[in-house]
Design brief:
alpha/beta; 322 residues; globular; homotrimer; five-stranded parallel β-sheet; four-stranded parallel β-sheet
Chain lengths: 322, 322, 322
């Protein structure tokens, strides 16, 4: 198995930075472990397991996100870890300290794991490379970095798809929206390709579709109804308000008219297609309320499974040898 | 026993939204439970009891209040719950997500209890109605909503009165100040009436007295000395600085002159009358320091009892069947 | 042993407000206790010890400092305490409540320990005097107050010096930088003098050297190379950016030229001299990166030892009779 910055010589995950390059077997191991954190009698319930008892998880959020931070905090606490929340933009970096000095200092406080959210693509990887040199027992989890990756989101999406669809081998998955700026889309494309999804479609306005999608094996559509035809899974992306204010899109009304997921549009997908969204939703922009709250929506299951998936990754990282 | 949104068919409390409509027997059960959380040898000490071990309490503060949040956090931790603090105005709602989407998401993270503070009257009730449909195992506690209610404050006030006065049957209670805008006053009037206080007086400037007080059975006074005559309990309300800046009041000096509780004014009450305040106090505005720190003040006991009362409500909510 | 506000009749530490006046034997007891919290097989590892199980530690930060708050939070959690973080400037004081009212309220919530950071010199002492009257079981730890004191920093510096140098009896220690405004310098001077360091040097520009240093037994230098000659320990102080913007210093470049610790400057110290810094560092201002990251730097050891020292003080305070 190829060794990388996030995988050690024994093939164990030592950091989670990106879904790119994680072997299929390891990815499935994460999903299986996550499943073990759900109550077998009630798969909507997450169990507690004191696997991180006595360990300290630091949430380092250089970019504010209460919701994402909470999911990691809950996951860590269900594993009995101590959790320290650090809103880092408000602190040391404001005093002019460098990113790596901040990391060195927190590492010296005897952290066991850093959950890192950062506006700059690559920041968690930079931190992991540095930590591997100075404090190799510390694990890094990427909670979203710039436009680069959001691996726990992709893994929980994969978990949700497998939960509702059984496997990945015969699926058509559509990713809809602002794929250009989306770390969620990027991480999903790598994960779903690795897991064996035979057909992934990218749907969005031309200005929000990056080049290179076809090279990744995707089929590209600019027409929503065409792209949704006969799909099994729809991953709706959040439209960032920032984009709207820029020149990239005319207006949210216009966007909804062309790319908003309505019941009508959904009807061209397979009758048992599931609708997913990473949250928070812009109702009436990328998704209509009738769909968001409809019987095909599995959006809230994603949230619950997200706790189990984060517990899975955290416990596997803690077990890996360094 | 009448079933309501906060009381189930067995008469158990499933949410705490308002003191209005809580039967006397149930209210007394809360006070008795709270008493059990005080050290019998030293009623100023709150004991620990792991009744919420493994449960997650989310503090959802849509309106900032470090002090109130801390009292709920302490109460939950003394019951061994995991506590997650969410300063919600800073997060998802800023991203344009609706209140109920935020609630759905947090519910899907497997919360067991939401403590909700919100600037809008009725928000916790709206949340409870929604939760009863989508996640009925989750309990809602109102930590103050607009001008509507602050039920834990009223219950801790009732506890304090019973602690110092023995019962409610023969008391004259005066509520002094800005009753118009006060959720504390509103919740206290409902609680004390239910508990059998025979005489409740409302005292304040005409502009800060709502209509309808007489219909609630209260006696209304605009003269402080007259209103305080022979009372057993004085509930002093905090004067919101915002009111001062509005047209409703001439100045804090003027307010203090007419409605500030001084030792001189206090002397017309019964000699063993107790002085209460929900905090934080404006010394020299609604209360003079000599009274705030005087021998009749039980203001700090209110704070301690508040921890026990919140523990009582939390543990009763957790035990109720849904 | 002289009784003081921070030492009881039995000579036990009941608060930690300043290193001034702490007897040598007690100071050494703190350092020995801290050593017991390091793994004997790996002195870079801090162990867990449930000595504060069931106790509540409140971090009261009237002045924001995420890093310092985190060190106390980690120390308290390693002792199994419940930790409540209060960013106090954002809360009650904004509502016009007095400092002591805030303290009384938090005390009534049944805290066991307050860690206090405050911009005003003397605030923690004021709080301790008040607490001794109203709630003598509560312990106060000063986490930095104005220009007055930062005792845990001085104790962890002493611990670091003893760790690397064996004892204090034959050392030459240089403190370099803005000594005038530095609570770290002040607390270190008292601690190191008590512990028997025979020669302490103060080095800095004349405008940043307070009067009275010679009376404290220090040798004063305005020339860095001269002051560093043959020293065993260099305590580099952080240059506050505020100073730079004031009239006190021409520019950071100018400061670095004259007082920045470079490898060249360091070479006049003893070959095995250690370099310390309380953090966060301004690289290229008071210290050059080659020195900060060099083999003589023990800056990150200071951070780790700081956790153990804070655990030591917390556990000793908790054990003391009141």
């Amino acid at each position: 198995m190829p060794r990388s910055i996030q995988i050690n010589e024994s093939g164990e995950l030592v950091h989670l930075l990106t879904t790119e390059g994680i072997p299929k077997a390891l990815m499935l191991r994460i999903l299986d472990r996550a499943k073990a954190f759900l109550d077998p009698k009630n798969p909507k319930e997450v169990v507690n397991a004191p696997l991180l008892d006595g360990k300290s998880v630091f949430n380092l959020f250089f970019e504010n996100s209460t919701r994402t931070r909470t999911t990691f905090e809950i996951a860590a606490k269900r594993l009995s870890a101590d959790v320290v929340n650090l809103n880092v933009q408000a602190s040391s970096t404001a005093k002019g300290e460098s990113l790596l000095d901040t990391i060195d200092n927190l590492a010296a406080m005897k952290a066991d794991m850093f959950v890192v959210r950062h506006g700059q693509s690559g920041a968690p990887t930079l931190i992991a490379k540095h930590i591997n040199k100075v404090a190799p027992h510390i694990r890094i989890m990427n909670a979203g970095d710039g436009r680069h990756a959001h691996p726990t989101q992709a893994l929980l999406d994969a978990f949700t798809i497998r939960h509702f669809k059984g496997d990945f081998q015969h699926l058509r998955v559509a990713i809809v929206g602002d794929i250009l700026h989306s770390r969620v889309a990027r991480s999903n494309i790598h994960a779903l390709t690795t897991l064996g999804v035979p057909e992934i479609r990218a749907i969005g306005p031309r200005t929000l579709l990056p080049s290179g999608l076809k090279e990744l094996g995707l089929q590209v559509y600019t027409d929503l109804s065409e792209g949704l035809r006969d799909v099994d899974v729809i991953l709706t992306l959040r439209l960032q308000n920032e984009r709207m204010r820029g020149a990239m899109l005319p207006s949210t009304q216009e966007y909804f008219k062309n790319y908003g997921l309505t019941a009508d549009r959904l009807s061209v997908a397979k009758p048992d297609a599931i609708v997913m969204h990473p949250g928070p939703m812009n109702r009436g922009v990328e998704i209509d309320s009738a769909v968001a709250d409809g019987s095909q929506s599995v959006i809230l299951s994603q949230v619950t499974f997200g706790i189990a998936v984060r517990m899975a990754v955290m416990s596997m990282l803690a077990e890996a040898r360094h």
